[in-house]
Amino acid sequence: MSRIKWFVSLILLLALTLLTASAFAQDAAPEVLVTADWLEQNLEDPNVRIIEVSVNPGVFERGHIPGAVNFVWHTDFVNPLERDVVSAERFQELLRGAGVNDDTTVILYGDSNNWFAAWGAWIFNLYGFEDVRLLDGGRVKWEADGRPLSTDSATFEAGSVTIGEADDELRALKPEVLSIVEGETLASLIDIRSPAEYNGEIFAPEGVQELAIRAGHIPGALNVPWGQNVNEDGTFKSLEELQVLYGGLGVDGSQPIVTYCRIGERAALTWFVLHELLGYDVALYDGSWTEWGNSVGVPVENPAGTVWGGQ
Amino acid sequence: MSDTTLGGGVLRDAVPASLAFSRSDALRLLGGTLVIVAVVVGAYLLHDADGYGAKSSISLLLGAALGITFARGRFCFFCILRDWIEKRDSTGMYAILAALAVGGIGYAVVFGAFLPNSFSGRLPPDAHIGPVSWVLVAAGGAFGIGMALSGACISGHLYRLGEGYSRAPVALLGSVVGFGLGFFTWQSVYLSTLTNAPVVWLPAMLGYGGSLALHLALLTIIAVALLRLLPALTAEMPERLTPVRLFNLVFRQRWGPLVTGAIVGIIGMIAYFRVEPLGVTSQIGSIARTTLDNAGLLADRLNGLDGFAGCATQVVQTITENGWLIGGLVVGSFAVSLIANRFQPSSLTLKSGVTALGGGILMGWGSMLALGCTVGTLMSGISAFALSGWVFAAAGIGGVWLGIRLGLHRWG
Q1: What digits encode the pLDDT tens for the residues B129-171?
Q2: Which DSSP symbol is given to A275?
Q3: Where is the domain boundary, A121, A137, A166?
Q4: Closest A-chain CA to B307
Q5: Residue B106 near residue B262 (C-beta atoms within 8 A)
């Protein structure tokens, strides 16, 4: 073997090693986000199930990503009678109806910046589903890119997924939040509502009926409105930008985090950013302000001092 | 004046096919065409305008198409019902039947994609399927009497506004007032009646195929029953289709009822598929609700109202998609009326103004409580296989019949 051939072989071997290593590195990173390009190339993959979770009714029906099925956030992901998330049995039934197996890759997307698709991702994670990902940019970017929509209603053979007990680590209930406020548990609270709601200037955003009869926020909570997580086109900011954003506020993953909003759904977007993208220890307080602001005997911070007038 | 139409039926308003095309006709044709071009340009601009987009754009175009069709086919529910009840001429009824038949087929097609399993316990999104109770009967009856008193239904007034009908703006103003009154009635009847009223959607029991079969069978029975009131057809003279004859057929003669109805049915299907079910009262009701809200007169929350599909009202500061639809309707009607030389502003007397206002109030009140009018609750509702549509139709016809028997339509 000549010296040159030996040298070329060595280079090739090195290159191959590097490639393999980088591929492994990619596999090791959590795959929780897909691009619209990736999704468009994988529309036909029988192991990929696309689920739309939109805030507004009638959006899915008038055109959705080809092959997608529709989950309705206010009936499918919740217990419509008691205030709670969907039960394991009902969730399993829904997923099987959508042809989901244990090894299916579920891609969630929706309107309004993936608000309720992210809430869906939290429910999937809460129930320990293995591979659930969000479409980066959601429905808005898919449409803005000029990608195809379909009105076909896809039907699938019943799936065989098994849904077990919910993982309490991802969910914060009121007593846990209270113990954070009282300093018994060390954790950061993040309020993702608008500054006006956080400061107690208003009880709820304009046009919204569900009121809490106290204004303000949970004592000690940081205010990081959800919109700071995303770019103008609806995609998530880069990991570096997100680390700088939250790190600047002292949220660096060194202690657990609890996110909340008004009714408990939008905060799932910030939960997704911190837990899924940055890998921090994060729980969602789905009771949120509509529980806290109506609870008797819990501490409240209200910088604006607005007094509820009984209307 | 000879009595021929596109479809060969005998109708009033027909003109001789050979009527000449004058210089003023050419000017009016140019004017009307410019108006239609303006609508198209407006729709194009609306598509990219901040806060609007494709749905507003389509709504404007569909509204214009509806205005053109309503005006050229004289698709006025009251005129059609009066011809039937008073003049024993059922010609126009076939336009309504055709619209419902084509609309029902269209809705069945769209439903199949929107909600493949009609037995799932869900209702298709946005479809006008309302609660059935005595409130709906009272609302339909009041609406019918209001039609007789004011000379047209709400959609009729909208397209006749484009023809310069002087009672139309007064009646439409009355309907805003009536809507306001309706909101106060709503608060009391919601808890006493509407919470327990059944929302009956035929496909939940019969499936889409069964519902469509029943729908078409009912329309066929009505169509056969009305045949004896169809005037004798006259033969059309064979004639070359010259540009002038084409102009006369399209712009001067009333479009045949089947053609008119089929176009209305297709527009209804497209509207449901792309935007929302056809309806013309949502913007009117929203004006009433916003005004009352600004004046602090109405409760922020109307009990349960936002939980029903229908011509939904909201407190708004902008023009809704429904606003673009009715704007397009008026302008489309104006354009073809100008071309057809039917744009003739009439004068308003005190008597015709007061009856138009009173009729408008009754119609506004009725369409608030029925969650829509002859377009939204009757046409879009029946096309969607909702029992509420049929009940509203029966009550509305009853109201018109009573109004005509009492001679209310002669007061104006």
Answers
A1: 999 999 999 999 999 999 999 999 999 999 999 999 999 999 9
A2: I
A3: A166
A4: A57
A5: no
